[in-house]
Design brief:
With 220 residues, the protein is an all-alpha fold. It has a domain of 89 residues. Helices cover 64% and strands 0% of the residues. The chain contains seven helices and no strands. α3 runs parallel beside α5 and α5 runs antiparallel to α6. The relative contact order is 0.05.
């Protein structure tokens, strides 16, 4: 229903037109950037794609991240080998010999590493060299990547131990040579003493002026 202009005063009519014009201008002055800001604000307040129930846990049917709580194969193999090394460290020589017999000629990388641990406890240079050879086989096996870090650590330790064993063996050989020379010197000294004793114990020779050695006068 429209108002009839004949019942509106000219002043009121002009005010009404001014109000309509202001409303139209206000509607046109809305910029696209303000609309974009409103859209962006709506996106920021949008709910997450993961739905949660009342307890704060993801609802059923939504993918949830799973923590990798299980130990990796490399860590598990290293822990088992460290536990075995601790047992070997406390073994007596007879028990070490039995363990060597049990392992025998091994081919699996884990058993080769175990045998190298047993051989290193014997504190003998030939066994230590054999332990190093077993570690070299383990490190050369691409299927034993899980044991390579521990094998490299043991190889470094065995190298230092071998250096000390060789140095000790060299010093022991030097002591043996020195003892042998000392024994030879003592034998020569004892021989000289025996010669000296034999010379001092010989009776003195009879003098030519003794009565027994005088010439008897010829018989008349």
């Amino acid at each position: 229903m429209f108002l009839k202009t004949e019942f509106i005063s000219p002043r009121t009519y002009r005010c009404l037109l001014a109000s309509v014009a202001v409303a139209v201008l206000a509607a046109c002055s809305t910029s696209p950037s303000s609309k974009s800001a409103e859209v962006a604000a709506g996106r920021m307040t949008a709910p997450s794609s993961v739905a949660y129930d009342g307890t704060g846990r993801p609802s059923a049917g939504q993918p949830t991240p799973q923590a990798n709580t299980a130990a990796s194969p490399a860590t598990d193999a290293t822990l088992r080998m460290l536990a075995y090394a601790d047992r070997v460290r406390l073994m007596l020589p007879a028990e070490l010999s039995q363990e060597m017999t049990r392992l025998g000629e091994v081919s699996a990388p884990a058993e080769q590493l175990q045998l190298s641990l047993v051989l290193s406890q014997l504190r003998q240079l030939p066994e230590l060299i054999r332990a190093q050879e077993l570690l070299a086989r383990v490190l050369g096996n691409d299927d034993a990547q899980a044991l390579h870090p521990l094998a490299r650590l043991l190889a470094a330790r065995y190298g230092e131990q071998r250096r000390l064993e060789e140095q000790l063996e060299k010093q022991t050989q030097q002591v043996r040579d020195l003892q042998r020379r000392m024994d030879q010197t003592n034998e020569r000294l004892e021989a000289l003493k025996a010669i000296e004793r034999s010379l001092t114990s010989r009776p003195p020779a009879a003098s030519s002026s003794s009565p027994l050695n005088r010439a008897r006068p010829p018989a008349p």
